[in-house]
Amino acid sequence: MEQPEGDISLVRSSVDALGLHSGTALSREVGRGRQLRIRRGVYASSRAWSAALPSRRYHASMAAAALAGGSGVFCRESALILHGLPLLAVPSEVHLRTLHRSQVGLHGEPGRLIYPTRLHEPPLPRGVTRAELRAALAADRVSTDVLSELVTPACLGGLTSDSAELTVSVEPLALALLDTLPRMPFDHAVVVLDAALARTARTELPLEKSLSEWEHFLRIKRFRAAWDRAFDFADPRSESVGESLSRVRIAELGFTVPELQGRVWVEGREYRMDFEWEGGVVGEFDGKHKYLRSEELFGTSAEEAVYQEKLREDAIRSTGRRVVRWSWEDLHRAGVLRDRLTRAGVPRV
């Protein structure tokens, strides 16, 4: 069966019953341009790999790193992805922990299609120096039980040639957030934290409680300041990456922070608004997926989605409110967004 476009199936080299190694044949296919070597002993169809979205190639690169024999724990941005959180950009490297100082660093050449692996030493809790932890590891004074507290299982499914689900080790969500977000640009951190807060708000274990159990790993003063800034700004009511990024851009441009997900009733129907400011200004972020994937997401055609959106905006305007809309592209054009919000009368700080 021909492989669907954009789908990736990883193949591991192996030795058959006759003692023949499939790596020889796979290497020949690499020379012919039909296969790519993703990691040592792990291959994928060149055509399928090139056709796949960057996010799919990154997932496959994480799976390949695990299949290649790496026993490390996924961390940093890789851990956030495995925990199902959105990122503003696909990471340039796959991130794993190692207990061996000699292995720390970048493994593999950065390229346009293949993501290399970067190995990191274990995170440091407050009150412990790197030298002390290295000495403890070298002398086996750090027990397996202690290290196991830094690990939780995750799954990467549908990426191997036999479609088996691959179980990997990843750092707990709270630790991954505390260790990664302070290293990110502010807007990237807010996008992740909004989504994390929104997801855990629907569970019995609020994120704040989980974070308090791991905050001793947030030990550097400038990282603490960066974390506090992002956490204070984050809002679980943001319902998409676009809405989270919009809030950051609005604040950067000097406008007041809007209320989120307000509701208004018109002729017996309830309408929800992305953003609302005092003075009757409503802001709406227009993500393309709402229209381009309307049938998949909502069971309606793109034309019907556009029509329903028009009716919704007309209803909101009928209350005397002014509506200003912007798109994903506008979030990367500061002047355009600033002028649009100013014309709509959005109040400034």
Please, could you describe this protein's structure?
This protein is of the alpha+beta class. The chain folds into 3 domains: 1-171, no CATH class; 173-236, no CATH class; 241-344, 3-Layer(aba) Sandwich (Endonuclease, Chain A), CATH 3.40.960. It is built from 15 helices and 12 strands. It has helices at residues 22-31, 46-51, 54-67, 76-82, 130-138, 144-148, 173-180, 186-201, 207-214, 221-233, 241-252, 289-292, 294-298, 302-317, 334-344, and strands at 10-12, 35-39, 42-45, 94-97, 105-107, 117-120, 152-156, 166-170, 259-266, 269-277, 281-286, 322-327. The strands form 4 sheets. It has a 4-stranded mixed sheet with strand order 9-10-11-12, sandwiched between helices. The protein has a 3-stranded antiparallel sheet with strand order 1-3-2. Strand 2 (35-39) and strand 3 form a beta hairpin. The protein is globular and about 70 Å long.
Short précis:
This is Transcriptional regulator, AbiEi antitoxin, Type IV TA system. This protein has 349 residues and is α+β, with helices and mostly antiparallel strands. It folds into three domains: 171 residues, no CATH class; 64 residues, no CATH class; 104 residues, VSR Endonuclease (Endonuclease, Chain A), CATH 3.40.960.
Q: How many beta strands in the DSSP annotation?
A: 12
Mean pLDDT across residues = 85
Rg result: 24 Å
Individual helix count: 15
Reading the helices and strands in chain order gives EHEEHHHEEEHHEEHHHHHEEEHHHEH
The low-confidence runs, each spanning 5 or more residues with pLDDT under 50, are 1-5, 291-295
- How much strand content do the residues show? 15-25%
Termini separation: 60 Å
Oligomer: single chain
Alpha-beta content class: alpha+beta
The gross shape turns out to be: globular
Major sheet details:
4 strands, mixed
Count of domains: 3
| Helical fraction | 40-55%
Order of strands, widest sheet: 9-10-11-12
